[in-house]
Request: fold
Amino acid sequence: MRIDIVTLFPEVALAPLSDSIIQRARAAGLVEVNGHQLRDWSEDKHRRVDDSPCGGGQGMVLQPGPLFAAVEALRGPNTRVILMTPQGRPLKQAVVRELSTAEHLLILCGHYEGVDHRVVEALVDEEISIGDYVLTNGALAAAVLCDAVIRLLPGALGDERSPVDESFSDPNLLEAPAYTRPIDFRGRAVPEVLVSGHHGKISAWKEAQALARTRANRPDLLEHQCPED
Reply:
């Protein structure tokens, strides 16, 4: 996979992708990640890429020219162009899995009051949001998207079962609580079932705990399910 990130802050987007599992995936050649400075496609002598919004309003809007030029320079026949924006489709694990099969992701990062909508109309395949809040710029959101996608690439995780057994692998359940040694820590013991060696009981415990945790922290995930008898 190849990922290109176009942003005013490429160092912000790349920093979280330069360590741990993601860096190892990059070093192993599983993915190529490039950060690009949007100003490099500006034709303004001061490298300006923004202007005030038409119709009035606060803030500044990214101009279409530099973004069109960037996409035209980087896009290939199998490129998916994504715009990180609070107005986009929520980033869910199912979306991440879908994107992890792409050959080339070209990620555009909004800033200020967003981007000229002609960019969305003519260039963008999908708008994605990482949550119902506003960040200073889209570079951080791009890093979140890349991290989520890269870790699903075959070979990226040391244990290939890991992406199967975690939260949102089942879109309606959170992951069960996890414990490790010491078995007793400051008077708090690991649940006895987890050290029993009885795999059937352990599996049932995890299922029950996942349901309880989801009901307590994310009841919205259970709303569409049939009520309990």
The CA atoms of residues 41 and 69 lie 6 Å apart. The two ends are 47 Å apart (CA to CA).
